[in-house]
Each structure stands twice: as structure tokens, then as C-alpha cells.
Amino acid sequence: MLTEERHKLILEKLKIDSVVYVNELVEMLETxxxxxxxxxxxxxxxxxxxxVHGGATLLEKEFNTKDDYVSIRETLNIEEKRxxxxxxATLVEANDFVYIDSGTTTSIMTDFxxxxxxxxxxxxxxxxxxxxxxxxxxxxxxxEIKESTEAIVGVEAIKTxxxxxxxxxxxxxxxxxxxxxxxxxxxxxxxxxEEALSRTRTxxxxxxxxKFDEISCATFGEIDEATIITTKLDNxxxxxxxxxxxx
Length: 247
Fold this sequence. Notes:
Helix 2 (22-29) crosses helix 3, helix 5 (78-89) packs across helix 6 (104-112) and helix 6 runs parallel beside helix 7. This protein has helices at 3-17, 22-29, 33-45, 70-73, 78-89, 104-112, 125-133, 155-161, 187-198; strands at 19-21, 50-52, 55-57, 97-100, 119-122, 137-140, 144-146, 151-153, 166-171, 175-177, 181-184, 200-206, 218-221, 227-230, 244-246. Strand 7 and strand 8 form a beta hairpin. By secondary structure, it is an alpha/beta fold. Helices cover 36% and strands 23% of the residues. The model has no long low-confidence stretch (mean pLDDT 91).
């Protein structure tokens, strides 16, 4: 295969996926790892992509390696989050044993909850306060309190989760990728999310459109492990990967 043809195919794949990985390109283009690395170095040099460890990303797409404070995140995409949260709240039924992950969209969901004949467990401080104020039976995980997101993380939180089996779970995410799944910048938070997700019969990811094609440092679930609740998407790319509810 000619060099120019490889470059064209790499950029086409990058346009679709937002991120490419050396090992995947080696298989796709049936060439050596050293050749792919030379291709990525060249395309990075001429400004066609951004080279990162193990692959490359679109120039306008960088890995998200930090969490914004709750006070900042609460101001972003409010109408989308409200629509998503309001719909998600209707999915809770009598006798459900529900996990609510810490997050701004899950917090908004809590405002719309009406089912009192259910049990709620959360690792979010603000969410726990809201649930209590509404008179719901509420449990909160033990562990370390993370300042920026007000989430409870750590070994104690994971040990507590191992006792539970949830009928439904509602999770926030910082990124959604068809290759890297659901991601978050903080490894400790990812471990808690991963454990809770694995113990949930019917898990939902609550995500506005800004979270799609974004990748953070730590994966806590594969794309097909949960149903995504979002607003109207611009394309059908993710519909082939998992169930999506557009509200």
C-alpha cells in the first residue's frame, strides 16, 4: 500500500472515531508497527492530527485528564441534563433497589424522583441530601470524599458495594467512546463506578451530547454494558454499539 493511501485511510478513520490506536492501525492496514508510527509522526508534524501515547487524536479532541468542580459542571448544558434527568427518574419503579452515581446529571435526576417505595444507594453527598429531604429511604457509601466532585471513593466504598445487587443504576460519565467505553479522569472514581455497574441488573448512563467521542483516563465500563439516556444525537454511530434512549 502506498504511503499516501495509508495516510488517507488513517485520517478517515480518525474523522469517524476521534481517536486511533497503533495496534488497531497495524491490523487494519496490514503493515508494521514501525511504519504506522512513522505515519503518525509525519501526520502530526504537518498538523493533521495530535500524536499521543499509543496512537493519535483529532486536533480539536484531547484526552480529558482532569475533573472540573461541581460548581462549574452544574452550569454546563443545563437544558439537556434536565431533559435526561427528568426522563431517567420515570424509570424507577416500586420495590427497586437503586444505585445513583455521583454527578451533575444524576443529581438533577434526583430532583424529579417520585417513587418512595424504593431504596436508594449513592456515593454522592449532594444526592444523598436531596434524597433524604424528599423522604426516601437512603444509604450512602463510606469512604474518602473527593473534593472536586463531592463523590465518595476508595477501598471502603468498593467493599460496601460488594454487599449489594441493584435492580437499576444511574451513572454519570465524562466520556463515551465506541472503542474505550465509558471513561472518567479519576482512577479511584472509575473503580467505584466499575464495581457498582457490575452489580446492576439494568444500568443506565446519563450523558448529554458533549460526552460523546470524548475519552478520559480510566474506563469503567464497555459501551454495550449499559443503556445510554441522552438527547437527540447528530448521527447514528452509537446506535449500532448499544441501546440508546433519546429524549
